Amino acid sequence: MARKDKKKKRNVNIMSVLGGNFLVKEKFAKQFPFMVYVTALLMLLIYNTYVAEERNREIAAATKELNDLHVEYIQMKSAVMEASKQSVLARKLKDSGIKEPVEPLKRINIEETTKKTEE
Prior knowledge:
The chain is mainly α. The protein has a domain at 33-90. Helix content is 71%, strand content 0%. It has 3 helices and no strands. The longest helix is centred in the middle third of the chain and has 58 residues, at 26-83. It is rod-shaped.
């Protein structure tokens, strides 16, 4: 018998919610400001989660772009270093008549004499 009463009471509660009868009860009127507060907090939480996920997507995209640019930088640096090797330059400039120097570089020192002007 107790089971039937519980089931009947549950059905009445469900019908009260679906029918909107619970909205006119005094208990609901007292709890309404709190329910609005909780709803506002939940909406704020959902918005915050959305913004955080958007920032994470932006950070992931920026990190991927940074990695791509780093790889491109390393490739370009390697190509410049390869192209600026003395043997590669000598091979490329062979047809133009410019030859690789065989003598070591010499330092030229110029001594400058300073004249003091007397006033």
